[in-house]
Amino acid sequence: MGDMVVPLSRCLLVSALLFSIGVVGVITRRNTLVIYMSVELMLNAVNLSLVAFSRHLHQLDGQVMALFVMTVAAAEVSVGLGLIVAIFRNREHTVDVDSMNVMKW
Amino acid sequence: MPLLSILIFGPLLVAAILAFIPRHDVGLQKAVALGGAVALFLISLLLFTGYSGAGYLFTENHAWISTSVFTSRYKVGVDGISLFLVILTTLLTPISLMASWSSIKTRVREYLIFMLVLETGVIGVFAARDMFLFYAFWEFQLIPMYFLIGIWGGANRIYATLKFFLYTLVGSLLMLVAILWLWNTAGRTFDIDTLIKNAGTPIQVQTWLFLAFALAFAIKVPLFPLHTWLPDAHTEAPTAGSVMLAGVLLKMGTYGFLRFCFPLFPEASRAFAPLFMTLAVIGIIYGAIVAAVQPDMKKLVAYSSVSHLGFVMLGLFAFNAQAWQGAVMQMVNHGISTGALFLLVGVLYDQRHTRLIREYGGVASITPLFNVVFLTAVLSSAGLPALNGFVGEFNILLGAFQASPGLTIAATTGVILAAVYLLWMFQRVMHGNVTHEENRKLKDLTHWQMAYLAPLLFLMVWLGVHPNTILSRTQGAVMATLESSRVPGSTGSQPALQPQAVSFEGGPAR
Amino acid sequence: MSNPVVSGWTPANIDVNWLLATPITILVLAGLVAMMVDAFSKKKAYVAGVALAGIAASMFACFRLWDTPAALAMSFGLKGDAATSQLTADNYALLLSLIILAAGALTVIMSLDYLKGQRLMRGEYFILLLFAMSAMILMVQATELITIFLALEAFSVSLYVLSAFARKRKRSAEAGLKYLLLGAFSSAFLLYGIALIYGTLGTTNLLEINRALASASTVGGDLSRYLLPAGIGMLLVGLGFKVAAVPFHLWTPDVYEGAPTPITAFMSVATKAAAFGVMGRVLLFAFPSARPEWEPIVVAMAIATMVVGNVVAITQNNVKRLLAYSSIAHAGYLLIAIVANDSVSLLYYLMGYAVMNIGAFAVVAHLAHDGREFSDISDFRGLAHRNPLVAVAMTIFMFSLAGIPFSIGFNAKFVLFLNAVGREYTGLVILAVLASAVSAFYYLRVVVAMWMREHDGQTAQAPARMAPGIGAVVTLCAILALLGGVVMNPLVGLASHANPSQAPGVAELPGSVARR
Amino acid sequence: MSAQAVLFTIFAALAVVSGVLVIRLPNPIHSALALIGNLVSIAVLYYTLNAPFLMAVQLIVYAGAIVVLFLFVVMLLSSRGEVHARKHLMWLAPAAWIGALLTFLGAFAMIAMDGGRVARPSDAVVVGDPASIGVLLFGKYLLPFEATSILLLAALVGAMYLGRRGESGEVEDYGGAEEANDG
Amino acid sequence: MSLLPKLIPLFPLLGFILCGTVGKRLSRAAVGALATLSVAISFVCALLLLRGFLMVPGEGRIIETTLWQWMPLYAPGQAVKGLDVALLVDPLSLTLTLIITGVGALIHFYAMGYMAHDARYSRFFSLLNLFVFFMLLLVLGNSFPMMFVGWEGVGLCSYMLIGFWFEDMANAAAGTKAFIVNRVGDFGFLAAMLWMFSITGSLRFADVFANASMFTASALVGVTLLLFLGATGKSAQIPLYVWLPDAMAGPTPVSALIHAATMVTAGVYMVARCHVLFSAAPTTQAVVSVIGVLTAFFAATIAMVQFDMKKVLAYSTVSQLGYMFVGVGTGAYAAGVFHLFTHAFFKACLFLGAGAVMHGLANNIDLRYMGNLKKYMPATRWTYLAAVLAIAGIPPLAGFFSKDDILAAAFDRGHAQPLWLFVYALGLATAFLTALYMTRSYLMAFEGEERIDWAALKAAAAHGHGHGSDGDAASREPVRGEVSADDKAHLIHELPGMSAVLVILAFFSATAGFVFGISALKPEWLPNLSFEKWLEPALASWWTHGSAVAAATEAIPAHASNHVALAAISAVVALLGIASAVALEKARKLDTSGVPQPLYNALFNKYRVDELYGAIFQTGGKALGAWLWQVFDARVVDGFVNGVGAAAKASGSALRRWSTGYVRSYAFSILAGVIIIIGYLLFYHPVIPPVAAALGRGAF
Q1: Which chain E residue has its CA at the smallest distance from A29's CA?
Q2: Do E663 and A102 count as a contact with CB atoms less than 8 A apart?
């Protein structure tokens, strides 16, 4: 294939870029749900790296790992959404993460 | 018989018994505590009668901690130096208990327990022959004192007790690092004798280790300018707390120098001797001057401790037998005299609930016996010859003069100043007309109070006229310590100790 | 099968010894049984009973597995190549498991009273606790990064929920949410780190990593110059988050304060044990050769953690929050053990820390009543009057945490510092002792409140009688804290016996993989 | 440039753009939709990287399940979104951008230095087909696979507990009774 | 013979213990008798010792007896030896012992009457006995430390007895002042001991003096000057004389015994005891002599204008002590000690006379409210007169011999060293002043117009006798008349016991001089009881055998002048002084109205030295103490300590803000950590060129 293949470094670069975007999302967004989405971005970015590495190493281990990561993402999201629903029910109806600062210092 | 273990764990046992006495039965609690403390004192006298010669006696050595990381043994023993500090502790504990017999009204049981635990800790420090054991006791005894000041202290007690605890702790922890370093470099053991034998560390390292040890001890002493915790702690502590604090806790610092700093780091100790002697002399004079202007009697006595312990430090860093004998003597003396002073201030405080000098005046005409006892304690503290205080100071000065005449002469002015602040205080409290009507109701010393003051008075006089009671027993230990603190290669100009040449029976007339 | 990449990993070739996983499987089974009991029984104490039974059985399994010969203590690897195994039951893992289990047992016992008082008695609580424990044990037993990651996520998820267990309480819910958001965020970094390590070394198996690095054959080609250290760094971010190392510590005070007190106790001890266990295994076993890369990072974290934890704790007025910062500080000391390559102190310290910290939180739990928690320092005022035994116990815990002699806390610190000095990390130790001098101040504040101040009478006072469960935990911990201060041989012996380097084919070699 | 590479470049760009949209769109529903775009783009990237099975899972699990879950909750909560903007947190957004940029630059440099050197040609193509992955999953990765069971169980129990309506007797303190007593 | 020395101090000690412990339960007579007897027995012991000494030749008159070892001494390079509790009896110490116990016993006896009505009777006698005990230790100690024990012990007793009536703060303050000023002197003594020990390795007199050659010249001067500093404190010399006048606040027997006859002479004794060292240090000798004569002169000038009878006597004591120092400073140790000896009698007599006056006048001590007391107190008057003449130096009374001896010695030494001519001249001037002011005090008290405050006397009599302060007497207005002569005789009376003591002392004041005086001036028919010869073995020969110091001592030229002429000059000067006083009395100017006001102020206020010291040491010391305490200690030292704590707290308060409560900022903190780690990984190696190179290779 020669240079026909997408270079590993390019994949990693895209992955890093997506990861960074996710990071920015987590920090800049106040809506808890969007923060969750940003975390998903980050996890997907890592998955991309894993897959790229997997191809690079002529293995499938990376792909299996990505599969596990998806499970983790699903579990996290389900609990996270459950939590936000519980909070939303009990609290002044907002999902603004900045309003959760009773405890500080 | 494992005398030292009995002395170390006896108080704990008594404290444990106290825990099971019903809370309301205060009388029984007091009786048990005092009975235990007196019994322990009597047992400690067996140390005195059984001690002979030099070296460590009553040694116990049992396996304790034996792990892959380190080994530490339960090794205790006393030599002539620690012997008297142990006895001083066992003596002052029952006295303190008696002094607080009626003045402590709240949480009596806890109070008694903490006093006894304190006794354990302090005796442990003086008896430990294993560095780990020593350090454990060294820090451990902070706890009971911390509670004694913090619970039964004066208005500003919490600040004072925290300051006491933290100040001491900071110093101790750096010593801990030094101990660990020493362990690593000197044979990976905590056995003090082995450490001393192996501690041939290069001078640069020695300097740091010495400073770490010295910081811990100097804070405890306290050496100027590390003294500010002391007046606060004393002012706020209950009487018995002050007695124990001044009587024995401060001695742990000077004892530490003698027992650890000098043998372990002989070169560094000597290299720093000018600095420490200077600080000691500053402490002597500074403590005295500041004491003179104190409006509070306890604070005055506290600052006087700074001054008195300055003498001890001066003697210690003179590195000769005369001064060390004096220093050891002075450690004991200070415990007796200052302890008595605190007790007497406590007698006044219990009745009037103030320690301000200006609240008194003319007390002598109301309480003649108190007057005599107080004056004796004051004079003992001021170093009047024929009383105990003089012997220590005189020996220290004799020895220190050989090391540094100039500083010693400066220190000698402390003798003048001691008279100034003590007698001036005495005059303002005891003499003149009764200016406060409340003072007319002051009671003279009761039999109970005399019962616990009498031993101290007796010792003041006895040790003044026959200090050999102590000096003859400390000589061997002092000489041995001096020998082990000798800088290798240098020929000491110490007197040649020929045991058979020493006569304590009194030399023949010329 | 024909696929070359599966090379060798055919079911027939894999050595699966489920016996080694019994501590985990027992807990999972117990969790499942508990779910059934919860579903069919109104009496939630039965659930707790199941949980305790499960923990006891798991502990028993741990004891049975203790000292399994190294060759037999490996599982889930290729037959004949122990270094490919993914699960180990070495003493290191078992001791950590025991710490986790003990913490869990004490938590369950004190939770019964606590939950009753807080009207929170739910079966899920114990079930989640069981799952969390099993995941933690899996994490310390695993020798493979993906398993570690999954286990970490599993117990984290449980803990997210447990933190928010008093979901109608503002602080609890907030704690859960904060923990979850930050946990997910940080585990993304952890995952990234794992991905980089995988990418550069071609394996996620710790033993293989060790072997690969030791033999210096660069499996992943030339990738390891920066990306491998970066991977280790990201790994440290994720683990640093779990152990509450600065600057990843910020969740700790909030979560510790908001979570139900027994959960806080459990988190502070078990999470720490699991995370430090993994950190030790990863850094000291997988990456000893990469020490030049990670050591400065860990040292910096240790310094910052000790300083920040202790200094900020001074200003805290809530005991739970104070203990949270104190746990940060203790993480700093533990990081020294990591740096000093000292698993003995690490384990011993964790044991000691478990005893005194659970005890302290149990006392806080004791103060909670009437559906509310009273964890302000002012709530401790006059406790010595009202409840002297509790005050004595709390005093023991505080002095032990401060590292005053004749307490297990002192001995733990002593051993840790001793080994660190013995390995020439004196500078760190000096900093650590200064920091612990600072720490004495805030521990003493609690003691001051209990002994030297009177209750202002404005807030409700703690019940005079102690609930049996909490009482038992407090008493046990107090006795252990004191006993451990005098008797060191058994626990240190246990810790020294749990040295994981007995794993075969794993050698600690000097030198670095990369750059130099 | 091969078709694969072209495909990669296009969808990588799409993924980045949709990613940016996720974090920039004010309405969470829009964000969720952008997330779908992002996930799909990544799925395509998986395909270009020889992971067809993963692409399928990505589409089914992520775009199909997770994002739908997101949409449900977003609509369920019909939140007012980000209402109070805290003045003292204004620094966070630029700081985050700069920080993320720095991180990315660091990653860029590292990838350039390490990854740039190893673009070695590869002839053995390993494709992640379901069978191979299955073998790995139940062989080599049996233990992590089992680990996920704990994870999922915990998530299940947890989510159920959290999502359940409250029962009587549970102490509530919402309503401002509790004041922050630290400070 | 070795038992007696031990017994001498023992009895007063026993007396002290008995009076102090059970004294309150005994009757007053018993206490007084016990105390007096204990001293008297010691006196008998001393007499027995004297008898023993007189039976052996001079060389054998020395006993050193050890009681027990006090403490070990570790002199560098020497074997450990003991510092003993041991006594040394030689003619010098025996002389002092006789004075102390003899005069002491008399004063004890006198005090039984004087203190009869005091509330703290037993305390008084126990302290008096304690004083005698310490004084005996002082003179009998065989080493410097032993001497120091007595030295400070007598200071303590002095302190307690001056402040005996401590209800009046002025008395207590006087006591404290005495002790503290003495401590300044003791500092010198102590420092000298340290120095001597560091040189000779011993502190026993015999060892130190035998090794006097080990001292360098400067060490010798230093040691002796320090010793002399001790002496100036104890013996009230410039600059430490300020305590003695105030010390008159104590009961009069105390003033007589401690502050006139015995304790204050300890400095003289000490210099005489250390004559080996002093003789070898001419610089110090000059200092001692000049200080002595200056003190003598200035104290005499102050005494001129005082109205307090006891103050006059106090300054007179200071002045006479100055003479003694001139004696021992000049090298005429025997003369100095001889003056000490005679002074003990006449000054005790004078003080006890003044005490009798006070006793008669209900504690009035102000000369302005006396006059014509000869009418009421004849015995007191005659004995007082005899003592005045003795101190004035009228031949053949005791003072004449002793004073003349000193002046002659100074004049002799003036041949070689002209400084001593100045000493002699000033001494002579002082002799004139002494005669003048002593006669003045006699005239104002016993002769002339009657200025007695009868009303106050009557009031006091109604209240019964009590000894309060002396100070308020001066504020009373004189009230005349209205009291019958009978009443007067009843109000002012003498106690026979007290008078008997006065007579004995007056007798010795009159005769001691020509019995024991210098042989050159004595008629042939008197037995040869020369004081100098008696002391000779102790002062010259023993300690210095073969040493270099001995040579130095002998280098001083022997007597060369015509002593008869010098004595005549002295006598004339004394007579002139008396005549002047009588003349002033005739002119009614004894109340000092003739003295110019500025001079009067300066003299009456003792040259304001007290105020100067007060300003420097009291005010300045207090200010320094307050500054050190409240500023330096509290702000600087403690400020640093608290500052560390505050800094920790402040950094804690700052760092806790890190934990803002906002989860997003927590996330940013994690990101920051990541950045730091990545930054660190990239930091140590150049980044830009390799990246550029990689890009050049087509990394992506």
Answers
A1: E664
A2: no
Side chain identity at residue E497, one-letter code: G
Evaluate whether C115 touches C125 at the Cβ level (below 8 Å).
Answer: yes
Q: Please choose, from the candidates B330, E336, B150, the residue with its C-alpha nearest in 3D space to the C-alpha of residue C450.
A: B150
Q: Residue C276 carries which side chain, given as an amino acid letter?
A: F
C74 DSSP β-pair partners? C88
Chains that touch B (3 or more CB pairs under 8 A): C, E
Dig out the tokens for B68 from the structure. Answer: 């892959």
CA–CA distance, E523 with E533 (Å, rounded to integer)? 17
Cβ-nearest to B290 among E20, E195, E628: E628
Amino acid at B2: P
- pLDDT at position C383 is 86
Give the helix/strand (H/E) hosting B420.
helix B405-430
- Straight-line distance from the first to the last Cα atom of chain A, in angstroms, rounded to the nearest whole number: 58
Q: Does C58 touch chain B (CB under 8 A)?
A: no
User: Minimal Cα distance from A23: which residue of E?
Assistant: E671
Of the partner residues C185, C229, C313, the one whose CB lies closest to the CB of residue E681: C229
**Minimal-distance CA residue of chain D relative to E690:** D113
Spatial distance between the Cα atoms of D39 and D64, rounded to a whole number of angstroms: 10
Angle at E539 between CA E536 and CA E545, to 5 degrees: 100
Amino acid at B392: G
CB B91 within 8 A of CB B209: no
Sorted by sequence, the CB contacts under 8 Å of residue E503 that are 6+ apart come out as: E379, E383
Measured between beta carbons, which residues in chain A are less than 8 angstroms from residue C238?
A: none
- C220 pLDDT tier (thresholds 50, 70, 90): very low
| Dihedral sign (CA A17, A19, A20, A24) | positive
- Indicate the pTM of the whole model: 0.91
Q: Does C404 contact B142 at a Cβ distance shorter than 8 Å?
A: yes
Distance from the E621 Cα atom to the nearest Cα atom in chain C, whole angstroms: 38
Considering only CB atoms, D109 lies closest to which of E665, E682, E698, namely E682
Taking a C-beta distance cutoff of 8 angstroms, is the pair D92, E668 a contact?
A: yes
| Coil/strand/helix, residue A1 | coil
Report CB contact under 8 Å: A26, C181.
yes
Residues with Cβ within 8 Å of C17's Cβ and at least 6 positions away in sequence, in order, are C72, C75, C76
Question: Which of C384, C440, C448 lies closest to B166 in CB terms?
Answer: C440
Residues 415-454 on E with a CB inside 8 Å of B are none
Residue A2 forms contact with E (CB below 8 Å) = no
Task: Give per-residue pLDDT as tens, A30-43.
Answer: 889 999 999 999 99
Give the Cα separation of E457 and B289 in Å (integer). Answer: 46
For residue E611, count other CB atoms closer than 10 A to its CB.
13
**Gap between the terminal Cα atoms of chain C:** 41
E672 chain-C contacts, CB cut-off 8 A: 247
In this predicted structure, the answer to whether residue E554 has a pLDDT above a threshold of 60 is: no
Q: Which residues of chain B have pLDDT under 50?
A: 491-510
Option in A19, A86, A99 nearest D163 (CB): A86
Task: Report the residue of chain C nearest E685, measured CA to CA.
Answer: C515
Q: Which residue of chain C is at minimal alpha-carbon distance from B176?
A: C433
Q: How far apart are CA E538 and CA E360, in angstroms?
A: 44
Gap between the Cα atoms of C274 and C280, Å rounded: 10
Rounded to whole angstroms, how far apart are CA atoms E273 and B243? 43
C499 Cα distance to chain centroid:
18
Distance from CA of A67 to the nearest CA of E (A): 26
Spell out the alpha helix ranges (H) of chain D: 3-24, 28-48, 52-57, 67-77, 92-110, 130-138, 142-163
* C-alpha to C-alpha distance for C241 and C247, rounded to whole angstroms: 8
Q: Is the pLDDT of residue E12 over 80?
A: yes
Tokens of D72: 């449900």
